[in-house]
Amino acid sequence: MPERVHSSDIQLFINDQRVPVVTSLSTSSAKSLIDLPQLGVSHIKERILTSNQSTDITFETNLTTGSTGINPIYSFQQMQSGFLSTGEFDFTIKDTAGVTTISGGALTEYSIDGSVGDIVKGLTSYRGDGAIFTSAGALTSADQSKDFFEGFFRPEDIEITSTTNGDEGVDTASLNIQNFQISVSPSKKEVTRIGTRVPRFRYPELPAQGNLTFNVIKNKVTGINISSLICDSGVIKIDLKDFDGNSVMDFTTSGCCLEKVDESASLDDNTTISFSYYFPIIQ
Predict the structure, then answer these.
(1) Burial classification of residue 106, based on how many CB atoms lie within 10 Å of its CB (0-12 exposed, 13-18 middle, 19 or more buried)
(2) pLDDT in tens, 214-234
(3) Domain residue ranges of the chain, discontinuous segments joined by +
(4) For the whole model, what pTM was predicted?
(5) Cα–Cα distance list, 94 to 102, 110, 129, 141 (Å)
(6) CB-based contacts of 69, cutoff 8 Å, min separation 6
(7) If you average pLDDT over residues 59-79, what whole number do you get?
């Protein structure tokens, strides 16, 4: 047995394909229980397990334009036809202590975070059937990978272009954008058959939506009209540029609708404005 399990001794696999450039990894298995109260007793003496016992797995990666592709997390999800798919993923976590397997994983959260001067990151969470651990197949020091990747990117400038059918479009050419986040958290309904303790399917609950937010340092009046009775929708493109102004990464969302504008100020700091948008998930 190893004296400890170091981060360099951990590898993550999805459907037997190793996921590179993982920067953090966590799993959580919480029992789902029902209390059985008794007459004349002031405390709970017995509890039983319910169906749908599950394990959550969350991992973060650095997005790169190198050999892993611009967005390897989304590529895995697209293998099962998008965020609303009922497809399942099998996860295998290997380290020097053994192997943990989580089967039947369905997407519960997906997000992309970027800020000026920091590496663009992607975070994904799945919910699967209970984790199974075995000491067989444990890694050794000889299994440590020697991957080399290029294309990690720290944006020097973030440019956001929005086009709507009304007055809610935002021209950010003169705004100092500091960071952005695109997030999707589809709700999944677990369906269990009689005689089984794990879900047979996890169906997406509709309608499903995603969220886009970005923060800017205030340097002018925004002039956004949020009094319209009907929410105008349109396309928002986030363009990440290098020091020379060249586009390196871009993300486009359709059907975006402005939901909230927050402005905040604190002593000895810049006034910031936060824009929050909703967009529908159709796949």
Answers:
(1) buried
(2) 888 887 655 555 555 445 677
(3) 7-30+50-140+149-280
(4) 0.80
(5) 12, 23, 18, 12
(6) 75
(7) 61
